Amino acid sequence: MSTAPAAPTAPIALPPLANDRFLRACLRLPTDATPVWLMRQAGRYLPEYRATRDVAGSFMGLATNPELACEVTMQPLRRYDLDAAILFSDILTVPDAMGLGLSFAAGEGPKFAKVVRDEAAVAALAVPDMDKLRYVFDAVRTIRRELSDANGVGKVPLIGFSGSPWTLACYMVEGGGSDDYRLVKTLMYQRPDLMHRILAVNADAVALYLNTQIEAGAQAAMIFDSWGGVLADGAFQQFSLAYTKRVLSQLKREHDGHRIPHIVFTKGGGLWLDEIADSGCDVVGLDWTMNLCRARQITGDRVALQGNLDPNVLFAQPEQVREQVIQTLDSFGRHTPGCGHIFNLGHGISQFTPPESVSVLVDTVHEHSRTLR
User: Fold this and answer.
1) What is the DSSP string of 285-329?
2) H/E element holding 81?
């Protein structure tokens, strides 16, 4: 039986916003144009971000300073007509709060000082005290204040997020990024009992973390299952999707009387689109390998879809960027009652992206999508 949210039958309460396109699309309500935001939209492709990071001294110095995290969250909104802000943070804050010691060396990816690979390390895991993540919630509150006018009306909604239980486990076992996921998959196959224990703790921690972001002011919650696609069919359902569902089952669907949409993005998850759509989320994010028309046929508008331009399109010439954006919008098709589409990239924006390409993308989305209504 489907656990996807039913089509709206009663009025849905949305927060006071000057631009609520994103929330409306998430909940499959009519919009005048397709909303657009970009994964990693606050990031290294913007010179003002790089300058702010220099002030902070490091990535974690930036992420743990609520005022600076607010500043870089707001920077892309000042440049582009984006329809949502996303909290500037990292997907690995939860295991860091578990005591694993997250760091980012210059020119390298994240590293953990401690790894979780044996019974003792797994037994020591626990849902962390959310006070250790106060800097994240302070950043959410600061961003909401910055987004609001004197009457408390927000410019655009704010998205909160976390890594999925499986994705967090990959980093916790591997100690950082991986090319082959040998260590985490070895543990998964040799000691599934330990892996399930890690994932259960992670799921409950992620749910509490996202709910605390919502209480602080996040108006949508996104789960990044960045490494779900590295799993075999069968293993994905058992070790990734089951625990994403565990998170979703605990997430607040309303706060302060307003509906909170839930988004799940599984990179490489096109094979399991039908099952992800039945997970209980409102929106399914797609990477660039999935055709939006086909995705819409599979989901039957049970959920809204988010995506899914190849980020490397942004290195093409402006007219080529425009053509690819139009092609992506056309692949979703005409908007009918009960459908929803949020334009995004199929993964995070590259640090080498020309900022002017993002202007072409955003403007083309709004312009062309109006012709599809």
Assistant:
1) E--TTS-HHHHHHHHTTSSEEE--B-GGGGGS-HHHHHHHHHHHH
2) none
DSSP letter, residue 334 = -
Q: List active site positions.
A: 40, 44, 53, 90, 171
Residue ranges in 103-241 assigned as alpha helix (H): 119-123, 134-147, 165-174, 182-190, 192-216, 235
* Residue 190 neighbours by CB under 8 Å, 6+ apart: none
Contact between 197 and 124 (Cβ < 8 Å): no
> Residue 90 gets which letter from DSSP?
-
Q: Indicate the DSSP class of residue 68.
A: H
Mean pLDDT per 10-residue section of the chain, whose length is 373 residues: 49 91 98 98 96 94 96 98 97 96 81 95 98 98 97 97 98 93 98 98 98 98 97 98 98 97 98 98 98 97 97 98 98 96 98 98 98 96
Q: In this structure, how many other beta carbons lie within 10 angstroms of the beta carbon of residue 197? A: 16
Q: For residues 137 and 131, what is the distance between their CA atoms, to the nearest angstrom?
A: 9
Is the pTM above the cut of 0.90? yes
Tell me the domain boundaries of the chain: 21-372
Which two tokens mark 62? 């930036």
First to last CA, the chain: 32
Q: Which residue has the tokens 């508008």?
A: 301
Q: Which CATH number fits domain 21-372: 3.40.30.10, 1.10.3470.10, 3.20.20.210, 3.40.1790.10?
A: 3.20.20.210
